[in-house]
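Researcher: Good morning. I'm working through a list of sequences from a screen, and I'd like to move beyond sequence-only analysis. For each chain I'm collecting a predicted structure so we can compare shapes side by side. This is the next one on the list. No need for commentary yet; just the structure.
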Amino acid sequence: MKVIKYGKYIGEPADAVDLDELMKRLGDFLLQSGFESQFYGLSELDASRSIEALREAILRALQEGDLFPEDAMSDELREMLQDPGALNNEEIRDLIDKLVERMAQEGFINPQQPPQVTPPPENTPGGHLGRPQDTNTEARFEITDKAIDFLGFKTLQDLLGSLGRSSFGRHDTRDLSTGVESGGISRPYEFGDVLNLDISETLSNAIRREGVKVPLQMEYRDLMVHQCEYHSSCATVLLLDCSHSMILYGEDRFTPAKRVAMALSHLIRTQYPGDTLSLVLFHDSAEEVPLGQLARVQVGPYYTNTREGLRMAQRILLRQRKDMRQIVMITDGKPSALTLDDGRIYKNAFGLDPFVVGETLEEVNKCKRAGIMINTFMLATDYSLVQFVQKITQMCKGKAYFTTPYNLGRYLLMDYMQRKTKTIH
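Model: Good morning. Structure tokens for this chain:
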């Protein structure tokens, strides 16, 4: 008699890994901004990633632990992961490849197959022996919009958790307007108000005037409407410094700045749908970048043309019809470049050039006249920059924060969510 034995199904180790947690730990690798290229010779302008580099990043994440449930990781697997040559182990490499496949299936990455290279013929038309040329056929990948949105959400979640709050709504002010949610005593209806009638007060006015009778004659002056809290709308331009100093001196300042920008974008889209956010990168010149491309941008060997960034930010904000218009500038250095009238770039990286500083402050003054507030987040504490930043703050009645990459997010989000209560009166 044929006997069939059943055993307990043991899934693949790769299926037990928390993919969301893995993506969170890979955030710095996926968002790297050129800092690693200083040490490994990678191209600073190449936004794509190699699959082999991704394998190494996943291995580091697995070695940190806590990605596997306690009952899903054997002692043997733990020993293999801690082996210095783990990536050469066939089982470990197979595990990592399955995780890469899961990431692709979930839509976090988009693998790209290497190009197919046809070997040259033995003889060229000129009769010379053809030799194959070295061609980079390494498989690569790019992160998707879903991955960018996920990383922005996780960063925002972490930042809001550190603030001790779980959710935020619209921006409150001390003004009252007519609307749906009652926020104060009712008042007489005026032409143009939302017809959110206070029925009790309206009927009381008519009864006081006409007495209790049926039918009750109502007049225009009897109408009373509820007042609700006025919620302001805001147009924001995030002015992000991508000069080379953002990755110098042994510290990557640009990747944390990108993380905060992605979190701010997610916050505005989900909690403040009436607000707008635009992104401008400034270096030798300035350029507006779609928010969807933020995770892919990197720093370059550039100077700091702050004036050109302010000019572009003004052009964007002056097109917006919002209660508030503001510039949030994240930088770590002094202005060191200027675009001249003929299009040439004037550069001086030594000290605070009076010509560059003067022209930059004149652009700040234009922002002030246009009613645009500038809030500056300085990722450096150089004494020579303090006075310059304070001057910007005084001119535009904004705020200045001398912060670090580690607490930038907390300061920026708190500033964004609280400042509007003090602006519209």
